[in-house]
## 1
Amino acid sequence: MMARKTAAHASPSRCRLPASALRRRQLAASAWLYLTFLAVATIMAGTFVLAFMASLKVDPLERPFRFYFDQLNPAAWIAAARLGQEGAGDALWGGFSPGAKIAFGVTYAAPADTTIVEPKAEIPRRRPGSGIAAALMRDYAADYASIALKSSSSETMQVRDERGIWQAWPTRTFVYEITYRPDRQNRPRIERTPLNLTAPPSQTLIDSPISPSRSERRGRLLSWDNITPGALGLIFNNYRRVINETADLQTGKSLFGSWLVNSLAIATGRLLLTLVVASLAGYALARLKFRGSRLLFAALIFSMTIPAQVTFVSNYLIFRDLSLLNTPWSVIVVFVASANVLLMKQFFEGFPREIEEAAIVDGANRFQVFWKIVLPNAKPALLVNAILAFQGAWNDFFWPLVLITSPPEALTVQVGLLSLRRSFGGAQGDWGLVLAGAFLSVVPVLILFVLFQRHIVPTQFTKGIT
Amino acid sequence: MLSHPARALAAATMLLGLPAFAEETVRISGWGGSEVAIVNGLLTNVLAEKLAKEGITVEYEPVDGDFSQFILNGLSAGTAPDLFYVDVFWARSIFSAGQAAPVTQDVSGFAANLLQAFTYDGKLFAVPKDFNALAVHFNKDIFDDAGVAYPSDDDTWTTLQAKLVAVHKALPEVDGLCVVPEYARFGAFALSTGWSPLDSQGKTVIDERFRRAFDFYTGLVESGAAVMAADAGQSWTGGCLASERAAIAIEGAWIISALRDGAPNMNLGTVRMPKDPKSGKRGNIVFTVGWSVNAASKVSKAAAKVAEFLTTEEAQQWVLEQGLALPSRTALADNPWLRGGQPEQMASRVVLEGLADDHVSPYFFGDVGGSWMQPINAALNSVFLGEADADAALASAQSAFDRMLAK
């Protein structure tokens, strides 16, 4: 009685809603769901986009974060291309080489009653303070460049002051010409042309082809790291530095390149090993009935609960005794495939037994059944496993950090990124390089994912049963 | 490793009294950062001929990760290089474990207070390669804009503090100094009072003198002379100087290479550490790094030879003149380069003078190692953050020292 009453009272939903109201509800529900997904995606993609933007900046840590800067400004790209063309005949990557003749114009403005003086221009001898760049830097633009004022012109501009009244401010444009001195002996091509302009703080820079890299001496000095960057050299300066400034001191080869190759080799090795072990073990556990198979399976599941750090010392000592430390083999073989085995086992258990029995009736032995019938149809599971294994190995940080410590070219890319963080710019770290390196390290995985992702779903097997 | 014919050849040449010409490869390693340019420059510009003459090939591997972890890991795994850096504050743990071989006994040219920390059991286990001490580095433009007199060699704690307060008052967006809760900086103030880290009985006693320095240092923030480096988004005092957030920084000459990257045009001035107003003395901490030979190295003789080459007067002069590091050899203290007028030269000269301050103590804490600093750092941190007052913080530091040194 009671129950019926409460049910009747509590169920306004039992009487059917009018179709329009139902529809509205459904629409509202899906709108909320859609908005939630959109918000999550924005947050995920947003951080990614912001980090990418920061990786292009001269100072990725700048506060407040700007969304509009030279590296994202097409006008600056064009100016950089022109400067690169004038500096080294290379509009893309720029430089400073014999025959260079660069026109660089800057415009200053000052309040009405202030006179604008010509800034002191100088091509400084800028030495990198730390990192491999400091060891490899041989030629300085300062030794090969001469700078002279070519022309200057005056104008006025309208500026609204803090009370909202328009005022005429004088402006002056100075055009400098930077040339490669013809009297020098060996005449190398130099990658960067720095520039310093020193002017009283009363006058403000309002226009230049590319913005100064930083303002120093409390606004007295504007400094450009490179006034001949070329378009790509401007946008991807940090990326170029990652490749060029992580070089092996003996061979001059880029370390970042060998880190990528090592990571690729290790990830591929681990992928192959995982596929072999996981598919064989998974099939054995799914189909072969042998003594202790349940115990083995239990041990397998249990092993998944042990963190790698627990067995790390003993593993390390084994590798040491096998003389495998500092070789890629140690990182390839130190893998835990139990999750992959489980995945394969579950897949094989769902595989129609009748097909296998038919093959056995036709005279196939166990291995032939596995090799010729089951495995070709296990493509989706194998691909999932392969992607998981590759991605896991690529992103692995702990084992490569512990097992491969030297020489520098033997590191994997993830451990190499750590060394980037420590090596440049003293205690501060050079975050532009770290971010650029991180984005470069994502690229191979991204490519693999795009290539393989469409193979995951359709296979012979799924076609056969659907 | 030598093959048999090569070994025979080596033996034959040795018998003949000729220099052994068997090619030996010595792996050497140090940390990265500004050190890469130093070691690489030495090997390629200064020592290339000498090494070739001795038949030694040097493989240089700068390590950009955590170096002490790298070297301890490598030594226990048997993959460590033949010759490597040891920092004075963790060197002892390697020496006492028997993982380093004694190096040259000819120590005549080196500054005595650098050798002390590398001597264990009466033997020298590392050749000091350079050294550093603290000094006050300041941005002249900030003092000009604020209309405040530059820091000077005659400053005491209080006059320096007054200048910093005046700077912050005139330019509110600038702070005087970014302080860090670390013994590595605060220690210079504590030492100037005459306090010593370990007394004659090997105990650390937090006395009235220590307390005076502690109160001064932790009071800098409240007086408006300083801000905590972390609050300014920096991890060290030099970071604030480079970004013009702070007027001064208390650092060693290593700040020069950081400024080359972060603020290459700074109008830099450098003066010596301020004096304690009560004792009228200066204190300083000496940091040093040496080359140690791996005890398990198969080419330990050649490695010791390389260490010797890397620290010769010629080598150190080159390093000094490049403005890269200060020499551990006393003969170079009056090198003409140091008398130059460039900011880098002046900074190096002032830091070198710091070695002659009244109370100088190496950055070295006996068998306890770097963990000796922990109680002081914790006390500084808790007072800076307002978690504890000085009485409570120092009482707990004292009891931590008593426990640590009782063992």
## 2
Amino acid sequence: MLRFLIAVIRRDLKLAARRKGDWLTSQFFFVMVVSMFPLGIGPDPAMLSKVAGGVLWVAALLAALLSLSRLFADDHRDGSLEQMLLSPNPPVLLALGKALAHWLIYGIPLLLIAPVLGVQFALPGDAIGVLMLSLLVGTPVLSLLGSVGAALTLGLRGGGVLLTLLILPLYVPALIFGAGAVDATLAGVGAEANLSLLAAFMVMTLLVSPWVAAAALRVSIE
Amino acid sequence: MSDTAAVLSVHDLACARGERTLFTGMNFSLGQGQLLLVQGGNGRGKTSLLRLLTGLAHPLAGEIRWRGRALADGRELFHREMAYLGHLNGIKDELTPVENLRLAGDLEGMPMDQATAERALTDIGLARCLDLPCRVLSFGQRRRVALAGLVASGSLLWILDEPLTGLDVHGVAMVEGLLRDHVGAGGMVVMTTHQPLALDGLAVVPLLVGPALTRPEPGNQEEPACCAS
Amino acid sequence: MSSSIAWFKFAAPMTFYGLAGRLIPWFAWSAGLLAAIGVYIAFFVAPTDFQQGEAYRVIFIHVPAAWMSMFLYLVMAFWSAVGLAWNTRLSFMMSRALAPTGALFAFLSLWTGALWGKPMWGAWWVWDARLTSSLILFFLYVGIMALWSAIDDPRRGDKAGALLTLIGAINVPIIYFSVKWWNTLHQGASISLMKAPTMAATMVTGMLIMTFAAWFYAIAAAMIRVRGIILERERHTEWAAEILEGK
């Protein structure tokens, strides 16, 4: 069981290593979207630090959705998704493995770039730390819930936009708790409450979404 | 030479695609050392039948049994003993043939070492492409990679949907050889093909998919009203 | 045995088609009657609110609409769960038939919320916890309907929509909680429609009657829609073809 999970994750990491273009595109998307905001709302550091948490989190949601639309699509196109579903292992592990691999490939880099962008947005040091922490706890939610959407929209026309439409509302709690943690730090009230709620939400999605994603995969493949 | 005990059996199987009922009341069984040749024109449901047999799709009615157990109950055992090659090869273009084979082995839970993978690919005529990414291989060569994976999987039942597509004359002869070896060694095959295959001497069970099978038995009142077309 | 079950599944939409046809007028007329009584209470019986003036009367639509939008989502989730558990086609059809009405009520609650917000807060839109939750619920409805419309195969569409509805249903309480949490942090509007200090008994009565009107309307609308869906899905069967030709 665990061997299969690790095999799925290693497979996706290997494929991502062979396709660095896709990976870089998603990271640069994140950086560029965030960088557009100061140009739109002005360079005042006080205002920028106030919106930083929200802007970075919204950009992270969009960047995640952008890469998620291909989570299963490539494997579906070349038939390897079918082959993996036909392995004697439960599809839940496949869905979980794909989501975890997505998090490792796309989520972790986001939180590593985030401090640089935080500095651009005049965030103080402790807020940058909390921002990274909130992304560390929150980005798995994006990958897990997104995997459900990716499985549901597999092979549909306009799948990418549709995925955004389906999944963005479900991301609301992650956005609120994640950006809220940064805001709370700035306001000096401490981010523990927000981070704990975010962690609870993450654990819940971890328990629920692989099952739904696996069911959705079976429905979409049929 | 054929073992008559049915390993795979199908009972009153019905299949629909979209709103169209493709066939109903299909029954057959297959034992070790037998090859089921699925025949029928385009759009008659050959591919749909094969996908039902793999367990990827679910029948409208009826049941498929593997070793006497319904597919839904014994999925794990069935998928351990079954290998499927559909229209798509299921190989990753970014990886080399060897990597593809070893990856498939890992996912199946049967890790394969480098030498075994290389031997499987060499046997199938891909000795010169072992460390090229599959992206640069021709269509027929990629098909061969998939076939090598099929053989290497060591599965009892092969489900093959048009395995000859994209293969040259040598390739077709090679597939014939593979089928002979597999069935001769007690393996089972369910396949479709549009091309003629020399399978003489093998226990071939023909199965015609299409409206002939959908004719209701006399007096069967519960036959769902089928579309008139 | 298995054939009798198949027959049952086949017949269920057919019997329901007839049943729904007989029930629709009852629900439709009840909805109309209740709405008339409710509107009468809203405008002529209920007293003017001393704090909020006449503008508060929009709650007779706003509150039932908001309730119904949430309630219908739960009903959809129920039918989705039933459909996925027992693979009953009619359940999926019910879920599909309810979605547009649910979205309509969610939209109505947003609209009336805006109408009420203008005199109360001086702005058409305020990021109040309830309104924001309604907005996100509306987005969920839109997402589910968009997914249905993107999938051509009815069987896949049914199941995919049901899965999305269910994961949304699990998420809705969390979304609601998170939005309230967010709202208290950011000190949004503190006045709530339901917290009107003088909640007269007539107001509650009027609101309940309007809620029942909305409920019956939702049932009637869903049944009309489900009849359409049944006919469309079953158009290849004899009985549906007879109905279609008879018209």
